[in-house]
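[step 3/7] inverse_fold.run input=structure_tokens len=459
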């Protein structure tokens, strides 16, 4: 769809009291991203030429986070939360005389698809002064009902509290998304009053005002899922489940095998190559990209990591931000990797911590190896050269450099650099006492013999 440039107004000034949270409602995350960011992304993807964000005076954190995520926004502060009509009125001056269409949407509907927004805007360009995005609600309680005439145009939106018995039975509802042609509608906003059950200025009242002036209002439609508005933690969980389903479907359609999709949790930005296999109970935090031919065994947790082609991970691996696993590398069970590069073909197969490090091409990190990267105040780097072999249960005290092809004897505590191809041993030397064990056993045997003789005499 190719719409004329339009502006978007995103309403987020509401208090969100039902979340019972110190965090503003629109900053609660779904699939690793604040709800508001989902809405702003959808508006951007639909082609909004500019976005005006309406917040309340105390929502400094909302403005900061939206700006920090790189969205180009004009901020408008709605001094008092007098209703959605008042919020849109407050936003209008920020449109700087923009004469085209305007799309109004709410910051708490994270599942909106950009295609649906495009269709709503297109509904305005077709000659209607207004287009409302409607949906069929399984249970319409709480939503504004769309009142239609015989031509299918809407003549009014009735909010729950003002609806008659008969109107409450209507299941075609207002999603909260509305598009209008600025020139036609600006004056109508002035006509909206607050003489209603809530004492608020309802944006939805512009439909009746338009109707009275023979300006027609059409509708676009979407599914109920897509416009789920999050007002409570329970609805947040519902949104999360719906979005996870969507993300998994997209991943599988792109060539990912999931043994138990319902147990795999993805982030909004998780990306996969082809022929990736994911076993049950794998969690992806944000910032993960996975190459092709990768196997991720069960119970692994990944965040902020780039995984190259043909890598094997887990089971029970933890990959933390700043990590890169290059082609064909292997991270096995109970291995934690943080801010480290595991170069091509390198392996850490069991029980290790690799933090602030490079593991060179083809190197092998033995079970129980720890990079001691933290001295209590600062982090230090461990550099393991290509083809190096780190014996099991070694502690590499950073900063330290292990040369290419070097060997570290098992159980070593390495505090100094090791030259390429050298063997380093840093552990107590082994002492051997020939025949000691046999003599010791003999002694034990004699003691127990003497003891049992004594007991027979007593008895
Ligand atoms: C609104 C619609 C209703 C629709 C429903 C869909 C109105 C009057 N009603 O009702 O028809 O079915 O959404 O979910 O529009 N906001 C502000 N400033 C305010 C008041 C609200 O920015 O002064 C923002 C809120 O942060 C929220 C959005 O506007 O993002 C909607 O407000 P809310 O109070 O949740 O409206 P509903 O009662 O859900
Ligand atoms: Ca709402």
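[step 3/7] decode complete -> sequence:
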């Amino acid at each position: 769809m190719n719409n004329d440039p339009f502006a978007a107004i995103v309403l987020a000034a509401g208090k969100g009291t039902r979340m019972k949270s110190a965090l503003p409602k629109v900053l609660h995350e779904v699939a690793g991203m604040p709800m508001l960011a989902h809405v702003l992304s959808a508006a951007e993807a639909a082609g909004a030429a500019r976005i005006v964000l309406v917040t309340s005076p105390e929502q400094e954190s909302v403005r900061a986070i939206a700006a920090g995520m790189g969205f180009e926004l004009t901020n408008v502060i709605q001094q008092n939360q007098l209703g959605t009509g008042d919020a849109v009125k407050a936003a209008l001056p920020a449109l700087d005389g923009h004469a085209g269409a305007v799309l109004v949407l709410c910051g708490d509907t994270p599942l909106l698809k950009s295609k649906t927004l495009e269709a709503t805007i297109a509904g305005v360009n077709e000659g209607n002064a207004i287009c409302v995005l409607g949906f069929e609600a399984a249970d319409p309680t709480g939503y504004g009902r769309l009142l239609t005439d015989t031509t299918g145009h809407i003549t009014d939106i009735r909010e729950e509290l003002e609806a008659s018995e008969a109107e409450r039975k209507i299941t075609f509802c207002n999603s909260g998304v509305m598009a209008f042609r600025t020139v036609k509608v600006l004056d109508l906003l002035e006509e909206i009053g607050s003489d209603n059950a809530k004492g608020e200025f309802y944006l939805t009242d512009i439909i009746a005002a338009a109707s009275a002036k023979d300006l027609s209002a059409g509708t676009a439609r979407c599914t109920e899922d897509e416009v789920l508005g999050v007002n409570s933690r329970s609805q947040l969980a519902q949104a999360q489940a719906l979005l996870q389903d969507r993300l998994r479907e997209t991943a599988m359609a792109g060539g990912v095998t999931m043994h138990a999709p319902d147990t795999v949790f993805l982030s909004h930005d998780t990306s996969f190559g082809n022929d990736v296999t994911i076993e049950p109970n794998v969690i992806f935090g944000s910032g993960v990209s996975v190459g092709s031919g990768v196997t991720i065994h069960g119970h692994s947790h990944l965040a902020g990591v780039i995984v190259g082609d043909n890598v094997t991970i887990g089971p029970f691996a933890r990959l933390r931000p700043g990590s890169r696993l290059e082609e064909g590398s292997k991270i096995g069970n109970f291995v934690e990797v943080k801010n480290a590069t595991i170069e091509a073909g390198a392996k850490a197969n069991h029980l290790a911590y690799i933090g602030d490090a490079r593991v060179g091409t083809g190197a092998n990190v033995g079970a129980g190896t720890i990079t001691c990267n933290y001295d209590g105040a600062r982090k230090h780097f461990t550099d393991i050269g290509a083809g190096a072999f780190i014996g099991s249960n070694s502690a590499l005290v950073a900063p330290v450099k292990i040369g290419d092809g070097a060997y570290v004897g098992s159980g070593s505590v390495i505090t100094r650099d090791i030259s390429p191809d050298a063997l380093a041993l840093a552990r107590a030397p082994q002492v051997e006492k020939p025949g000691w064990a046999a003599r010791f056993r003999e002694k034990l045997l004699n003691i127990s013999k003497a003891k049992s003789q004594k007991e027979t005499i007593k008895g």
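[step 4/7] annotate
The pocket of uridine-diphosphate-N-acetylglucosamine (ligand 1) is lined by residues 11-14, 54, 78, 81-84, 86-87, 106-108, 143-144, 157, 159, 173-176, 202-204, 229 (CB under 6 Å).
The mean pLDDT is 95.
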